[in-house]
Amino acid sequence: MAGQTPGMFGSSRNVAVNSTLQNEAKSDFSDKQTLLAVLQFLKKNNLKGTEDLLKREAGIKDDDVIPQTAPPSETDVSHALAAYKSADDPSLYMDHYTDLKNFIESCLDVHKVELSMVLYPVFVHMYLELVYNEHERHAIIFFQKFSIEQEDYYQDDLNQLSTVTKKEHMKGNQLMENFKGSRFVIKMSRDSYNHLKRHLQEKKMKPLLNIIQEHLFIDVFDGVPRSKQQIQATSGAVLGENERDANKAKVFYGLLKEPEINMPVEEEEESVEVTDKSKKKKVKKDPLLTKKAKNDPHAPQLNRIPLPEMKDNDKLEKITAYREALRRVKVGRDHPPTICFYTMLNSYKGVTSLDIAEDSSLMAAGFADSTIRVFSMTPQPLRCMKIASSLEGIDKEADDVLERMMDDRTASDSKLLLGHSGPVYAARFSRDRKYLISSSEDGTVRLWSLFTWTNLVCYKGHNHPVWDVEFSPYGHYFVSVGQDRVARLWSTDHHQPLRMFAGHLSDVDCVKFHPNSNYVVTGSSDRTIRLWDILNGNCVRLLTGHKGSVQVLAFTPDGRFLASAGVDCMVLLWDIASGTLLAQMKGHTETVYSLCFGRDGAALASGGLDCSVKLWDIARVIQEIDTEADISIPSSVNVNDNPKLLLESYSTKATPVLALHFTRRNLLIASGPAQIPESTKT
Amino acid sequence: MSAPPAKSSPRDAQVMGAILKDLGVADYEPRLINQMLEFVYRYVTDVLDDAKVYSNHASKKSIDTEDVKLAVQCRMDHSFTTPPPKDLLMEVSKHKNGQVLPLIKPYTGLRLPPDRYCLSSTNYKLAGQRTKKQSRIQIGLPMGQFPQRLSLNPLVHGKVSGSGSQTALTVVTKSMGMPTVTLVTKSSQQQHQQQMKPAIRISSGLNPLGGAKSFNLTSPSINIQGASQTLMGQPSLGQMSLKRKHEDDDYDNPT
Fold it and tell me: A cellular component term (GO) from this record (chain B) (predicted)?
């Protein structure tokens, strides 16, 4: 018989039920329904002992008992929600939770920090079970008591969950669906895990065991338990940390092999006597180029993804870029940069995005009134291309045909682009400065020509606001991300996307191409960063550690490292090859909206809503990387959060920094809309 | 940016302030309360109006909870669409990511989608070329002949105005977007010796620029496709449309 002894009344019921069982034929399917009905009746009348006994005797599992109040719809959500059904007494939950908390407190310090990671998901799932089983009052009390004890970075999610108090609320809540649909991942050392398992088996707390088995995924690793600092570094995402397998795939993070261009090496003090022709005919292979010509094992093949071929224009551009790079200034620990700040006046509440072209000659500003303005940053004004009839008259073989085709009468310092029907959230230039791509709240992505200053194509695919868009470094492809949680890869000549990267649990806020154009990285409001492979659409890296939405990303020029920042005011540096966090750079006090690496990758500039530009020492981080550590064991990865990483901090008076850009010579250009201080403040 | 609504403000405004406080929103402009109030008012009136319509439709005396539920559901599907669920997204993306990235054709100038998807064409049509309403297509016939027309098509929606008189013009009214085939046969004393050739004129529904010009014919200049009177397949006859056909949909797989 069962451990519990039912009361007098209960035992008589027990006997009656037993006899009913014996009378009817065993394991007759239609009788099963009768059994279920009996179970329902017992449950209604709260005859717990009898019910358990009957269940055990008849061999009926919990899942078979369908509550009468179950929603009739067949959606996955309600199926998944039905798993929350539990016949347990609501007050037990509080006791179990407190018990678990006390147990964790009583553990050794080494295990305590690891085990305390279990508390948050257990709390959430317990709360949701209470709500599903319609124990509203208990749920609210439970929530109020324990929610404040959870970590800070979960408070936002908990606020959202607090609105779910009735079963009807559950269906619409996206956060809830996230919790229900996937398992919360926790990485734990084997010792702590065994400890926990032993305790739970001893205590036999059924609902707790159920929750842990179904909703949690504990990734056990063999090694020393992690310290609080290490755990804090990588926790914070909506669904816990990343599993070991998530970062296993090989990533080609090297740069593409540049085609050899015969660079005529000109010297500054070219004397007149030396004939130009002879100098130009001499083809010199520059040592920098020959170094890159060696095959980098980490670089992808040139034909891995189709890329547009290099045209003559592109080659000329490369030569100019190379020449400018020779005159580059060093920016790093002992060489603070020169910063040129462009302030946008009279438009604080209007500017939603800023971007500067790669050669620093153009700046694009997207506004909340759905316009885009392109400014010229050089003394040369912006001109429009001549109309078709005039174009026919010019000599195509002339050297300055590119000048001749522009109409000087239309020259002006800035051009206005109209076309969107909602605030423009991103406006980016292509590398060759022929196109501008923009995305807006109206769900469209528009391609503009910077020769005719007109809208060429409107790409419709997202039905929700598109938060960011970016051109590939080699042109032809661009990727857009939005509120619908997917990133889409398009090419300019297809009206539909080529790839869809789905996997994020919440809006995707920012996107960047890798310098070799084979990968795309996205940052999202679910506080994770994902690296996607364009070739097959797989997510090859999942990086957790941010405690707030990720708003901006940046790759180092050599493609090895990724910097990210967002609402949690921290700038994190990741190693792409292994998917580990290298450094945490704290210093900002408000959301960071812009990041830019110096052209040689030794320094990182960041700017945000706290109206300051901060410079970080990346060379030091790279120096201090522990190459001996075994990255497969999470506890041997140490995160560098040396306060000395902050080199300089420059404040503006009242202008948030929305755009940062290092020119080819390492001059830092920053830009932002001037924030006029409110005269009346309560 | 502002304190919660003062005690003297209307109760609804205070409710809004309490909602914001509950959700942890501490900093907001005072305009937000007004915006929320407006939204709530508009939403509730819309839902109740819809519920009234539904309850009338079901011939009920007054609004029921079910009517309200239905009204809320319809409005949710209409205005407040949420992004698609994750499983659907994963499925679609799996399908799309399975396709190979299309190759890039070399030596092309501007790489843009086909003209249909670009915004590069004009957004106007000159008025001078059309003398009648756009939906009509004129078939002009030589003067002085009695046209005998068979218009055989189940496709013509509009009415066919026959010409019993001596007018040379017959006008066929048809709706836009439907290519039609009108079989026109002429018989005349003058052309008895000629064979009766059915003249078939096809025009696609999207009226090409010159489509509605009135023909001034002395000889049948209508396209003649042959003696068969059968209704031939539309696509093969549609070749004379001035617009580029839809083969551009296959531009990834060159034929």
Answer: SAGA complex
Inter-chain touch A162–B117, beta carbons under 8 Å: no
User: A443 CB near a chain B CB, below 8 Å?
Assistant: no
To test the contact with chain B by mutation, choose from A239, A500, A505, A534 the residue with the greatest count of B C-beta atoms within 10 A, namely: A500
Q: Which site among A471, A494, A536, A682 would you substitute to test the B interface, given the most B Cβ atoms closer than 10 Å to its Cβ?
A: A494
State which amino acid sits at residue A170. M
Question: Count of CB contacts below 8 A, A vs B?
Answer: 102
Work out the minimum CA distance from B134 to partner chain A, whole angstroms: 28
Residues A586-645 have pLDDT tens digits of 999 999 999 999 999 899 999 999 999 999 999 998 888 877 767 667 666 777 878 888
**Is B6 in the A-facing interface, judged by CB distances under 8 Å?**
no
| DSSP H or E run through A448 | strand A444-449
- In A, residues 290-329, which contact B (CB 8 Å cutoff)? 305-309
Amino acid in position A149: E
Cβ atoms < 10 Å from Cβ of A95: 11
DSSP string, chain B: --PPPPTTS-HHHHHHHHHHHHTT-----THHHHHHHHHHHHHHHHHHHHHHHHHHHTT-SS--HHHHHHHHHHHHHHT-PPPPPHHHHHHHHHHHHTSPPPPPPTT-SS----GGGBS-S-S---GGG-SS-TTEEEEE--TT--EEEE---S---S-EE---SS-SEEEEE--TT--EEEEEEE--STTTTS----EEEEE-SS--GGGGPPP--SS--S----S--S---HHHHGGG-SS--GGGGGTTS--
B104 touches chain A (CB under 8 A): yes
Contacts of residue B6, defined as CB under 8 A and 6 or more positions apart, other chains included, come to none
pLDDT in tens, A129-183: 888 887 788 888 888 888 778 877 888 788 778 878 787 777 767 777 777 777 8
Mean pLDDT, all residues of chain A: 80
CB contact A514 to B (< 8 Å): no
Tracing tokens 């997204």 back to the chain, one arrives at B89
Q: Do A500 and B99 touch (CB under 8 A)?
A: no
User: Residue B157: what pLDDT?
Assistant: 40
What angle separates helix A155-162 from helix A174-181, to the nearest 10 degrees? 110
Distance of residue B54 Cα from the nearest chain A Cα, in angstroms: 22
Q: Compare CB distances from A495 to B81, B106, B113 and report the shortest one's residue.
A: B113
B235, two tokens: 């696509």
Task: Name every residue whose Cβ is closer than 8 Å to that of residue A491 and which is 6 or more positions away in sequence.
Answer: A476, A477, A478, A498, B102, B104, B111
> Residue A644 corresponds to which amino acid?
K
* Cβ(A552)–Cβ(A593) below 8 Å: yes
Q: Is A81 on the interface with B (CB under 8 A)?
A: no
C-alpha–C-alpha distance, residues A470 and B21, integer Å: 37
The torsion region of residue A285 among left (phi > 0), alpha (psi -120 to 50) and beta comes to beta
Q: What is the pLDDT of residues B32-51, one digit of tens each?
A: 999 999 999 999 999 999 99
Q: Is A589 on the interface with B (CB under 8 A)?
A: no
Q: What is the DSSP string of A599-663?
A: TTSSEEEEEETTSEEEEEEHHHHHHT--TTS-TTSGGG---B--GGGEEEEEE-SS----EEEE-
Q: Which amino acid is at B195?
A: Q
* Residue B24 touches partner A, C-beta closer than 8 Å: yes
Per CB-CB distance under 8 Å, the chain B contacts of A177 are 85-86
Chain B nearest-CA distance from A400, in A, is: 19
Name residues whose C-beta falls within 8 Å of residue A506's C-beta, 6 or more positions apart in sequence: A174, A178, A238, A485, A524, A525, A526
- State how far residue B28 is from chain A, nearest Cα, in angstroms: 11
